[in-house]
């Protein structure tokens, strides 16, 4: 099972996104997928390039729209494992409406956000995840807005799988992606993925000093939503591991009345060219 291709990533040396790419490739192999069983759909940003670096179906979509495309792919072929991916600006600013509603919908895809608290591709502007006071070219006096808390928002929106990891912890990140793939519903995995070129505050060392790893917290119960919310608030969101999972709620595909088990993409409608033209004409 070879999820590597021969495309050389053009991320800066040391960018956290390299680990996310490796973790997706390892997780896909570990759960027994073949390349033709996986689709990786990405948005725009440095992180959006990831779909081109994995040997699977891939689509580098448009800004903030990885999730609508990924959901379309899943609905057309529920047999595919679908991973959507992008950055914090992509998913938590322009794409936030899609993120919240995909969470509510609980469609069976895995969404991996490479969260570097800055816009890297456009050379370093404040993002929705930048802390108050964060200085960039777009906020030279320091950001006057508070940072978004995406995982608290996800929990309060009915998320059934919420996890967070760190690019430096490839083992944990790979394991969480495996769990996300296996989860029957929408899984959100936020990854602290440092931008070594433009973010000189939230560095690898900064995360190592500030993160609480749930794998080391005794007695933590990831099925307890209130405990998950409390822990996120206590740590200012600097928490890694499986934060919350609800295995009881069914996925969107399983709840839609009459949704076919056989993928739409595998059905042969046996339609003639004339009938097809007539159908298309009705939509003109
Ligand atoms: Fe990674 Fe930042 Fe370089 Fe983009 S600019 S590739 S996010 S290090």
Automatic annotation (TrEMBL):
InterPro entries assigned to the protein according to its UniProt record, in alphabetical order: 2-oxoacid:Fd_oxidoreductase, OFOB, PFO_beta_C, THDP-binding, TPP_enzyme_TPP-bd
Keyword Magnesium recorded: yes
SUPFAM superfamilies: Thiamin diphosphate-binding fold (THDP-binding)
Domain Pyruvate ferredoxin oxidoreductase beta subunit C-terminal: 195-260
Top-level taxon of the source organism: Bacteria
UniProt-listed GO biological process terms: cellular respiration
Co-factor(s): Mg(2+); [4Fe-4S] cluster; thiamine diphosphate
Residue ranges constituting the Thiamine pyrophosphate enzyme TPP-binding domain according to the UniProt record: 44-191
MF (Gene Ontology): iron-sulfur cluster binding; metal ion binding; oxidoreductase activity, acting on the aldehyde or oxo group of donors, iron-sulfur protein as acceptor; thiamine pyrophosphate binding
Alphabetic keyword roster: Iron, Iron-sulfur, Magnesium, Metal-binding, Oxidoreductase, Thiamine pyrophosphate
Claim: Metal-binding is one of the keywords in the record: yes
UniProt cross-references to Pfam families, sorted A to Z: PFO_beta_C, TPP_enzyme_C
UniProt cross-references to NCBIfam families, sorted A to Z: PorB_KorB
Protein name according to UniProt: 2-oxoacid ferredoxin oxidoreductase
Source organism: Paenibacillus yonginensis
């Amino acid at each position: 099972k070879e999820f590597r291709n021969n495309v050389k990533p053009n991320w800066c040396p040391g960018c956290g996104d390299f680990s996310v790419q490796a973790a997706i490739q390892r997780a896909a192999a570990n759960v027994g997928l073949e390349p033709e069983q996986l689709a990786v759909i990405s948005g725009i940003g440095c992180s959006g390039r990831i779909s081109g670096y994995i040997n699977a179906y891939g689509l580098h979509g448009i800004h903030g729209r990885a999730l609508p495309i990924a959901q379309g792919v899943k609905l057309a072929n529920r047999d595919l494992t679908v991973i959507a991916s992008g950055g914090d600006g992509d998913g938590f600013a322009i794409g936030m409406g899609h993120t919240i509603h995909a969470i509510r919908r609980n469609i069976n895809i895995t969404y991996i956000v490479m969260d570097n608290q800055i816009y890297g591709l456009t050379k370093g502007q404040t993002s929705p995840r930048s802390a108050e006071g964060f200085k960039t070219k777009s906020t030279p006096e320091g950001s006057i807005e508070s940072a978004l808390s995406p995982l608290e928002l996800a929990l309060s929106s009915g998320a059934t799988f919420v996890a967070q990891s760190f690019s430096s912890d490839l083992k944990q990140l790979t394991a969480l992606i495996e769990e996300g793939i296996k989860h029957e519903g929408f899984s959100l995995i936020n990854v602290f993925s440092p931008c070594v070129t433009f973010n000189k505050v939230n560095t690898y060392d900064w995360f190592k000093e500030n993160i609480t790893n749930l794998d080391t917290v005794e007695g933590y119960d990831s099925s307890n939503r209130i405990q998950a919310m409390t822990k996120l608030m206590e740590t200012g969101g600097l928490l890694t591991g499986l934060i919350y999972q609800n295995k009881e709620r069914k996925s969107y595909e399983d709840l839609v009345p009459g949704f076919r088990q056989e993928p739409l993409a595998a059905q042969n409608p046996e339609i003639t060219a004339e009938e097809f033209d007539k159908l298309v004409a009705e939509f003109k």
